Description:
Blueprint: E1 2-3, E2 8-13, E3 18-24, E4 30-35, E5 42-46, E6 51-55, E7 60-65, E8 72-77, E9 83-88, E10 92-97, E11 106-111, E12 120-125, E13 130-135, E14 139-144, E15 150-155, E16 169-174, E17 180-185, E18 190-194
Antiparallel strand pairs: 1-2, 2-3, 4-5, 5-6, 6-7, 8-9, 9-10, 10-11, 12-13, 13-14, 14-15, 16-17, 17-18
Amino acid sequence: MTGGRDSVCRVWDIRTKAQIYPLTGHDSTVCSVITQAADPQVITGSHDSTVKLWDLAAGKCMATLTHHKKSVRALVMHPFEHSFASSSADNIKKFKLSKDFKPPMGEFLHNMLSQQRTIVNTMAINEDNVLVSGGDNGSLWFWDWKSGYNFQQVQTVVQPGSLESEAGIFAMAFDQTGSRLVTCEADKTIKFWKEDSRATPETHPINFKPPREMRRF
């Protein structure tokens, strides 16, 4: 699957390199595409501020999510929960997918509890429920998936000879262990990030009080 500036997500046959069919319905550039085995098999985000869930077999849109007010540039699927997150300049939002494929197909859960205040180009999540978002200004924000709490912020460093404006993070992924993060950045570098093995609750205290509507009793 590929998304393009023609507002279309195209489905391709890898063996023949031929297009199978287009998924049409967006009104602007398709910025992000994610897939999964279960329905909806394809989820797309666009500059038209919408997220669409697709029935791959039928080639039709199953639902359109209109919760964002600005371009949806990145999507990420949770590795084992039936849920995903979408990012825009307004916020990162979390959605739950219906397991029985009945409406509502994409139930809005909550916003992440802080705003990165930049264009978020990419996101990644590991099995420890750590969500990472990479911004156009070189910021890496680490979130707790369950609560939406931002527990750490890191700023990348551009390589010598590059401009400060080339700090943008364009893509990222966790390795198979989930403990190392790989980022692709505007200064033409690929960076590897690892956990701080010396970190403890004492050295990195978290003063977090969940909002009233998110508390569990």
